[in-house]
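Students often ask what a 'structure token' actually looks like in practice. Rather than answer in the abstract, let us consider NAD-dependent protein deacetylase, a protein of 246 residues. Its sequence is given first.
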Amino acid sequence: MNSIETLTQILRESKNVVFFGGAGMSTESGVPDFRSANGIYSQRLHQEFHPEEMASHSFFVNHTEAFFEFYREHRIFRNIQPNAGHIALAELERRGILKAVVTQNIDGLHQLAGSKTVYELHGSILRWPCLQCGRVYPVDYVLQEENKPIPYCEDCGGIVRPGVVLYEEGLDSEVVHNAVRAIGEADTLIIGGTSLVVYPAAGLIDYFRGRHLVLINKTETKADSRAELVIRDAIGKVLSAAVAGI
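Now compare that with the structural description of the same chain:
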């Protein structure tokens, strides 16, 4: 039995699957990752600041125009579509096997594929709340305002910022609570496309007490030794083939 057949068998036996994913989940949709050798954080995008600095709360406060320029150019991805992995997970949820997706991604591709229960640990680039009155704008509003260095609220004039968790900011406690509960109740946890180096998100897998731990990632992670099954291949290919075999 090969690794995909093994995963299919695990899914057949499971009644409460949770998927925990990172940047590698979306690379097949054309979204660049961050921490690989060719990722955004390895590039020099600005003469003075490193990309990780430009994604921080302090950079947003102290260099607001440069912050929005960075986000418009490097964090908003236009015309991207869910890949085979997103679609397979949505199908698994439709069948009642997958109970939740916990994601570190901000691109909204899981929901676009049809997934209903998605806990976005780092927020969403699709939602842009006003800091002053709380009105939430779609990402299209910010793109339409590209001629304005800083987007402002139509109602109160406050700054409209991306609804994502910046460096130096804490995760949303309700989202974390729901993610912990889902992982803790799962009989199977599939981890895909994450290096498991970003905390506190990476620490969530420690709440898993179920039977099957599956890891799909092209490179080694700290959780490999704990996993029942480790697959070094493209997530979309693996998940679509495994779900098709159920």
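One point worth highlighting: The two ends are 15 Å apart (CA to CA). Ask yourself how you might have guessed this from the sequence alone, and why that guess would often be unreliable.
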